[in-house]
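## Example pair
The file below holds two records. Each record gives the amino-acid sequence first, followed by its structure token line.
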Amino acid sequence: MMILKSHTVGPLQVKAYIIGCSETKDAVIIDPAGSEDMLVKEIRDMGLNLRYIINTHGHPDHTVGNARVKALTGAKVLMHQEDDTLFRGKEAIALFKSWGFEPAPPADAYIKGGDELKIGRLSFKVLHTPGHSPGSVCLYGHGYIITGDTLFVGAAGRTDLIGGSFDTLVRSLKENIAVLPDETIVLPGHDYGDTPTSTIGREKRENPYLKECCAD
């Protein structure tokens, strides 16, 4: 059985997700972006053992909590290599420092499209969905997709930052997300829509980005 908890944290109101396996008590946290002590306390209070910190992408509002959570738990940081490399470059560091963010520590290991992430007896597939950033990923499994900033309820991620590409984002949405079952529950990286979550079916009907994809 899957344990799923979410919290809105950090200066840019990121959705952090805790996923745990009720049988083995293994857990991961996705995009710990603030309130790190509270998140770790909740994980411990549920009797879970945090194995990994997973970043849907490398923008600092989603990675700002990596160092603290890692220090508290020893969990390893997982990210796509393209974002880990790009956002530790001088241009990106200067931009993000101007926003008030310090660089996150490098990832401990890389994930890529097609990988299967095991969380105890749970399994999530990594979907590489570049566009918002070159190394953006989504996690799909057990009827859910955690989309980071690739897809929001009624919208999609911005593409005007370093490494962003609107055409690439549209292709990712068409090839990797619009093809999922309509009943798949969408768990976005920010609560920007009229509801905190959605479904692929609803987004294909109402989200202009997915409607554009499905119209072809």
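Second record, same layout:
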Amino acid sequence: MSIETPSPELFPAAGLLIGERRVADATGGVHRHVYPGNGEATLDVAMAGAAEIDAAVQAARHALPGWKRLSPDKRRDLILKFADLLQANGPALCQLAAAENGMPVSKAAGHQWIAVDNFRYYAGWADKIGGEVIPTWPAQGLDYTLREPYGVVGIIISWNAPMALFSGGVAPALAAGNTVVLKPSELAPFTSLRFGELLLEAGIPPGVVNIVPGGPAAGSALVSHTGVDKIHFTGGGATARAILDGARHNLTPVALELGGKSARIVFADGDIEAAVRDAITGATSIAGQGCLLGTRVLVDDAIYEDFIARCKAELEKVALGDPAKAATQMGPVISAAASQRIMGVIEQTQRETSARLVTGGKRAGGALANGYFIEPTLFADVDNRSSLAQNEVFGPVLSILRFRSDEEAVQIANDSLYGLAAYLHTHDVRRAHRIAARLEVGNVWVNGTGFSPSIPFGGVKQSGFGRTGGLPGLEEFTKIKNIWIAN
């Protein structure tokens, strides 16, 4: 029996959310959403065109003075009320997440809590944003700074983790006093639209957050709009270059959170069982469709074959299935095009390299055949110069590489255009500190992964610039004004 298509009642009301208006007849046309679990269409998504982007920016500009001047404690309390609604609506939001991009509800629950925690964390900052008093010389005066909101912020998020990405940008933007025009991907717009409804229900004024699903034309209109004061983008490098080109005309500041090919370095003295578990989780929790996942696994020569054997055994236990079912560990990839692209990478690797296919490498069959399911796949003996090791697969594919010394591990890990994250597994604390300091990445996790809203996250090199999370994430959405008062 094939997987059932989600009920239409699960989805939010059709249309963009501009102010408090639903706009169903948008000039960008429609996108027919397809459920990744079975390849069947669900409903048409209204797509923003330039006219709707302009209307959303105007709504945000109209709402800006009131939101900016609202006392910080009131802004804090409204954001906290919204976080409470996110918590109360958790089960329905997780089912909606499964319907929009195939993320299993068991994994969506973690993303829903990331969203709740992000909004609660940044609500706590809303009444604590201040400047500093600056020493002056030789002239005598009182000099101090203020941190002020940019104004209208355009936020563009990817389809792979909409709840987490929405909160990572919108929460600090609102706490700082900005208003927002958010463009979710047309592939997965539904949780963002539902968040928009809950923002209004929480009492956040219309126009403070506007939700405008759309494709490249909508993104281009947003980043080039003269009424947008900052752009925050999460996605791929090619789109980021187009965004930078569009933003240059108005000199609009931009923050970019881009892709990664993160190295997971497993030393012989580490907890091998935990390293295997974390590697498997990274490759399968959202079907490998994540920028920070450690899918390039560097393994000490002393434990190399043992590690591969353990990974193979665990990958073959992963339960693929209906994203709406609690027992499902891995769902489908986002679309038919993504499935074809990933299978192309697997076939090219087998055809053009000496990498060893250990397990997987095929589309799932049986009851899953109509959906976009790919078997969890493991390649060993991967050359770090190969396309498989250097480029994002954005699918459930693990690459295993061998190293024989700490120096070689660092060299391989850093031999990448990307610099988003890295993972170390070792019980040698001195080694952990030494190697973490040498890795050319924005984030290093040692012996496990934590993702508190209080920690800054972002990349270097072609993984982008700017940060989400923590105080740096708040400061991305503020600008400094200096004030001098002569004695």
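Notes on the second record: DSSP finds 15 helices and 22 strands in the chain. The chain has a mean pLDDT of 97.
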